[in-house]
């Protein structure tokens, strides 16, 4: 049994991903380490990036900690980390560790013919990390996804003529595999035409989280009546507009607590909730703890237990 208390935390940081090919919007490379086992120590920095990340293990075992869970994967296993998901990794055995890191902006791999499926990977209502149940429960899908990532890596290394076409095709096959293997409906949701209609409102929320956001402003922006907008938004997104804004504010607050040296009061102002009683209430509703407790837990000071999952077969 490991606990978060055994896993000290340094300040989280946003990792800038430098694309190996700017037109493919990706970075893929192999990590090979024969350093001694160190577990989740202070050498393992919390970080995040807007790109989705796949980790595929060739040899050895790797521990991955996120806000939600601590998982161990071994040879032939892989895991997906969603856009801007806080995480850190650690080498778990004294022997050799080899694995592939694949970071990609999936939104850049949709064209006019595939655009209707963009919303499936937008993470507006469901984070992509929830798709890891596929790799855990579906051996065939796991093997196929692993092979696709290895193909992408090999093509990026060889750079033979047409490698861009091969990589782009493999990325699309990987997304198709995830969609068709998603028996729990993580990638379900609204039609793209409905999201396009709401896109100005969603973009407005992202840009103005530190300010007051009124339903009436969205109605004017979309030229919809008040009652039609609130019903339409709930139908498309699956949350009321107010709940959606609060969700986005809490998510931003989580990141600020771990990546900025700000007081709780300052974080509340940054996310547009200057009333501390309201901020604490909303934060606790989403995380079942106060902002201070969240910060302590994620920095390994609260001793919250995290079970170590067995490697996937």
TrEMBL record:
Task: Keyword check for Transcription regulation, yes or no.
Answer: yes
Query: Which Pfam families does this UniProt record tie to the protein?
Result: HTH_18 (PF12833)
Q: Which domain of life is it from?
A: Bacteria
List keywords of the entry alphabetically: DNA-binding, Transcription, Transcription regulation
Looking at the record, the residues that make up the HTH araC/xylS-type domain are: 199-297
UniProt keyword Transcription regulation present: yes
Q: Which SUPFAM superfamilies does the entry link to?
A: Homeodomain-like, Regulatory protein AraC
PROSITE patterns found in the cross-reference section: HTH_ARAC_FAMILY_2 (PS01124)
Q: What is this protein called?
A: AraC family transcriptional regulator
Gene source species: Paenibacillus ehimensis
């Amino acid at each position: 049994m490991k606990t978060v208390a055994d896993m000290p935390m340094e300040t989280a940081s946003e990792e800038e991903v430098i694309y190996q090919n700017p037109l493919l919007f990706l970075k893929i490379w192999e990590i090979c380490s024969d350093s001694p086992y160190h577990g989740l120590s202070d050498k393992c920095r919390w970080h995040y990036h807007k790109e989705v990340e796949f980790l595929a293990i060739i040899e050895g075992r790797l521990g991955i900690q996120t806000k939600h869970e601590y998982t161990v994967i071994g040879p032939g296993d892989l895991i997906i980390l969603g856009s801007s998901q806080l995480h850190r990794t650690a080498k778990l055995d004294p022997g050799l560790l080899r694995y592939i890191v694949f970071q990609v902006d999936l939104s850049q791999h949709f064209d006019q013919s595939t655009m209707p499926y963009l919303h499936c990977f937008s993470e507006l209502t469901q984070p992509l990390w929830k798709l890891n149940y596929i790799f855990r429960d579906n051996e065939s899908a796991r093997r196929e996804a692993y092979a696709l990532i290895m193909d992408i890596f090999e093509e990026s290394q060889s750079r033979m003529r047409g490698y861009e076409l091969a990589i782009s095709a493999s990325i699309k096959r990987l997304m198709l595999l995830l969609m068709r293997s998603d028996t729990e409906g993580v990638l379900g949701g609204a039609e793209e035409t409905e999201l396009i209609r709401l896109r100005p409102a969603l973009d407005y929320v992202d840009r103005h989280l530190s300010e007051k956001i009124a339903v009436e402003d969205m109605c004017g922006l979309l030229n919809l009546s008040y009652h039609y907008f609130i019903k339409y938004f709930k139908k498309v997104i699956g949350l009321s507009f107010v709940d959606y804004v609060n969700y986005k504010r809490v998510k931003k607050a989580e990141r600020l607590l771990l990546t900025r040296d700000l007081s709780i009061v300052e974080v509340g102002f940054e996310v547009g909730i200057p009333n501390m009683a309201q901020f604490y209430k909303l934060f606790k509703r989403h995380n079942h703890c106060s902002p201070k407790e969240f910060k302590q837990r994620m920095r390994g000071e609260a001793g919250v237990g995290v079970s170590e999952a067995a490697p996937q077969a």
